């Protein structure tokens, strides 16, 4: 996977075993299955990994992270952040997963290999119960999240074309 | 006085630790897992051939280890043999994963417990470089690199980005290293970022994808071996693996091992703290035959810190391991009324509140023949040492010798010093060196086996009518991992994962005996209850991983860590 660092990366994060916590991965899967991109991009299901993704994230011109977020807003609320606000987002959290993206970005900063841009597309979850399915409320937001990612890509000069309808 | 650290940072998952402190030392302790998993429930009713795909999502750090334990448990239930090529490929994946994990644990996650990053700015780079050159022949200990790293660190501090080193305890009275040693550690912290990647490259090439490997199957691996086809495991890819193995070796043996010895020597008092439970359990790993009766790395059980009591676990079908494991929930938030064997294990929550004498954790308390056991690299190294495993003895003696000479002891540090907080770090470095040698061994075995004309990688599993059960175990970076599967008519009827951190972080058991984390904290010094660095040091030395695993971005700013003193 290293060696593709000139491409934009869409990184879906979260634990698919914990209901809405996996929404980022679900969006990444849908993006992979339903769209074509020009120029091509990389889409990675990062799960809940941290340092394992060092090479995947390093040196990218831009990374769009799709994840469940806790903003204090009602479940299903969508968030998009870009520029300096996005990394600050990761830094300030105290999620149970301490070694996530903020540590990775810190390590990459030390190595001078940080991605040049970062966008966060997030959704506030309703349920984190042990379950492989999204709740209806969050599932209903997936098309909108796909549009948010497509819009973000457009702003970065990538044209996304839908190749198949959602299942 | 009682202190509560909640959560313990720079670990995976949410762990709370409470300590009673009197006269500057810990007199009682409680370890509490603050997250409910219950992830095993998702597997019930599923096809056992798919279980590993879900199991590897249990934890973001330990993806491959859960995957491997899962396929082994199903293979064990079916008495299914695994082709030699598949064993060697799997062995290299888990070996490379562990090397990566150990390097990251020491440099990126726990070094800041011992190393004062800010103090490194005061170091004389020339002196620091000479000091490093005195420790080993590592080719990147030159003054140029030391000076460059110090300048970079200064730039980071000036721009207020020190936070990337985690919430470190700069200037804490328990930090005793001189500035030059601190700089040496920072230089190697940076280098570790480069070399851990190379270990991960091996996982990526053999596992066909990271962070979630895709090449496993119940019955073998899905890597067809064909040197003429590009879509398979080609000679070119195996040579990539070879180069990565070669690249990592010098870092492990000339940097990681000497650094741990040096820091250990300078914190020699920490060989006297943190022993805790000295019953040690580990399992044999890296099978060398198709049935799992011969292993490159031995495993077994040691009681009361006496290596003379070592009893081996002989293989995947040895009842000694299978029959010995039970889990108590007397002090955990579940409903069981007695300790249960994992095949009968339940996951029914019963949350009360934090009760010092009652239930206080989501982690169960496992026992081995009704005894508490410590697991992890220290258990692994002591057992392999006791079993006469030559590379383990060699690297252990080397580390003890280095500590002895750096600390001017007039001889090697005794093996008994390993029963300690700093001993767990030393053992992890020794294990990393042993695993690196064995990566080399497994690569050679694979090449020889393919060279002999064997290209088998998969035996098709067949599921019988009725009920079968099996255990799959793996000596993971944090210790004994076991997955227990009950299969009825080809579907999963029960599934339990007894993970390494369950062994170590478990609360009091059915006899109210305290667990390994808790026991290791007793008598630890605490210089400043508001900044209990010493507590953190001992807990981090186990490399806790309670993730299992939530990864939600929290945008509501909160205080980083609560240390409550009452």
Describe this structure in words.
The complex is a heterodimer of chains A (167) and B (566). Chain A is α/β, with parallel strands linked by helices and 167 residues long. Chain A has helices at 23-34, 54-57, 85-92, 101-110, 136-139, 142-155, and strands spanning 9-13, 35-38, 42-47, 63-70, 78-82, 118-123, 159-162. Chain A contains six helices and seven strands; from the N terminus they run E-H-E-E-H-E-E-H-H-E-H-H-E. Chain A has a five-stranded mixed sheet with strand order 3-1-4-6-5, sandwiched between helices. A two-stranded antiparallel ribbon of chain A has the order 2-7. The longest helix of chain A has 14 residues, at 142-155. Chain A is globular, with a radius of gyration of 15 Å. Chain A starts with 8 loop residues before the first strand and ends in a 5-residue tail after the last strand. Chain B is of the alpha+beta class and 566 residues long. Chain B is built from 14 helices and 19 strands. Chain B has helices at residues 51-55, 63-78, 84-110, 125-135, 143-158, 179-207, 235-266, 319-324, 377-386, 390-406, 421-451, 500-505, 516-521, 533-540; strands at 2-6, 12-13, 15-22, 25-33, 216-217, 220-221, 280-282, 285-287, 295-297, 300-303, 306-312, 325-328, 365-368, 467-476, 479-488, 491-498, 545-546, 553-554, 562-565. In chain B, the strands form seven sheets. Chain B has a four-stranded antiparallel sheet with strand order 4-3-1-19. The longest helix of chain B has 32 residues, at 235-266. Chain B is globular, with a radius of gyration of 23 Å. Chain B starts with a strand and ends with a strand. Chains A and B meet through strand 3, helix 2, strand 4, helix 3 and helix 4 of A and strand 2, helix 3, helix 6 and strand 18 of B. Strand 4 (63-70) of chain A pairs parallel with strand 18 of chain B, so a sheet runs across the interface.
């Amino acid at each position: 996977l290293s060696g593709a660092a000139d491409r934009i990366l869409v990184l879906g994060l979260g634990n698919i075993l914990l209901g809405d916590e996996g929404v980022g991965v679900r969006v990444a899967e849908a993006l992979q299955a339903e769209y074509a991109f020009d120029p091509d991009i990389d889409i990675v299901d990062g799960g809940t990994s941290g340092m394992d993704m060092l090479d995947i994230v390093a040196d990218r011109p831009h990374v769009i992270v799709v994840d469940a977020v806790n903003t204090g807003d009602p479940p299903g609320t969508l968030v998009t952040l870009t520029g300096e606000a996005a990394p600050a987002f990761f830094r300030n959290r105290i999620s149970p997963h301490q070694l996530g993206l903020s540590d990775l970005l810190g390590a990459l900063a030390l190595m001078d290999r940080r991605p040049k841009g970062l966008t966060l597309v997030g959704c506030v979850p309703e349920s984190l119960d042990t379950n492989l399915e999204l709740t209806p409320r969050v599932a209903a937001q997936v098309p909108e999240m796909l549009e948010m990612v497509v819009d973000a890509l457009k702003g970065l000069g990538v044209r996304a074309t839908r190749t198949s309808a959602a299942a | 006085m009682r202190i509560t650290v909640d959560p313990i940072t720079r670990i995976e998952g949410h762990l709370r630790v409470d300590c009673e402190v009197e006269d500057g030392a810990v007199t009682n302790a409680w370890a509490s897992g603050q997250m409910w998993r219950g992830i095993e429930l998702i597997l019930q009713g599923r096809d056992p051939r798919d279980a590993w795909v879900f199991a590897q999502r249990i934890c973001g750090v330990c993806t491959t280890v859960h995957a491997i334990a899962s396929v082994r448990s199903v293979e064990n239930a079916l008495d299914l043999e695994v082709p030699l090529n598949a064993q060697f490929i799997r062995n290299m994946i888990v070996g490379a994963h562990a090397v990566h994990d150990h390097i990251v644990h020491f440099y990126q996650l726990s070094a800041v417990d011992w190393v004062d990053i800010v103090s490194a700015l005061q170091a004389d780079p020339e002196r620091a470089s000479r000091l490093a050159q005195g420790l080993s022949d590592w080719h990147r200990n030159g003054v140029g690199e030391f000076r460059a790293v110090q300048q970079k660190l200064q730039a980071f501090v000036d721009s207020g980005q020190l936070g990337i080193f985690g919430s470190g305890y700069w200037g804490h009275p328990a930090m005793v290293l001189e500035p030059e040693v601190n700089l040496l550690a920072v230089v190697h912290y940076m280098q570790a970022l480069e070399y851990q990647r190379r270990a991960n490259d091996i996982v990526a090439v053999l596992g066909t994808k990271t962070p979630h490997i895709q090449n496993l199957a119940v019955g073998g691996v899905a890597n067809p071996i064909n040197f003429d086809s590009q879509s398979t495991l080609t000679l070119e890819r195996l040579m990539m693996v070879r180069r990565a193995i070669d690249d990592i070796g010098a870092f492990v043996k000339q940097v990681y091992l000497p650094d741990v010895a040096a820091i250990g020597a300078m914190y020699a008092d920490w060989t006297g703290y943190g022993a805790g439970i000295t019953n040690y359990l580990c399992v044999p790993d890296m099978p060398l035959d198709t049935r799992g009766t011969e292993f490159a790395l031995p495993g077994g059980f040691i009681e009361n810190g006496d290596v003379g009591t070592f009893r081996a676990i002989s293989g995947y079908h040895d009842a000694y391991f299978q029959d010995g494991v039970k889990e108590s929930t007397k002090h955990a938030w579940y409903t069981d009324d007695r300790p249960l064997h994992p095949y009968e294990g339940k996951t029914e929550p019963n949350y009360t509140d934090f009760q010092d004498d009652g239930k206080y954790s989501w982690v169960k308390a496992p026992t081995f023949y009704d005894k508490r056991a410590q697991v992890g690299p220290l258990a692994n190294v002591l057992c392999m040492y006791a079993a006469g495993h030559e590379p383990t003895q060699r690297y252990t003696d080397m580390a003890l010798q280095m500590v002895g000479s750096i600390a001017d002891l007039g001889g090697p540090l005794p093996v008994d010093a390993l029963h300690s907080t700093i001993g767990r770090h030393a053992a992890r470095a020794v294990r990393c060196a042993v695993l690196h040698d064995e990566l080399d061994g497994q690569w050679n075995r694979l090449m020889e086996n393919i060279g002999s004309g064997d290209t088998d990688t998969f035996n098709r599993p067949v599921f019988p009518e009725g009920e079968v059960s099996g255990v799959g175990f793996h000596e993971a970076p944090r210790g004994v991992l076991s997955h227990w599967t009950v299969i009825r008519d080809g579907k999963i009827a029960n599934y339990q994962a007894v993970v390494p951190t369950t062994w170590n972080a478990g609360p009091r058991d059915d006899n109210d005996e305290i667990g390994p984390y808790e026991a290791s904290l007793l008598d630890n010094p605490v210089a400043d209850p508001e900044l209990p660095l010493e507590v953190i040091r001992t807990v981090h030395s186990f490399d806790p991983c309670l993730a299992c695993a939530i990864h939600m971005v929290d945008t509501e700013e909160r205080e980083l860590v609560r240390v409550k003193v009452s």
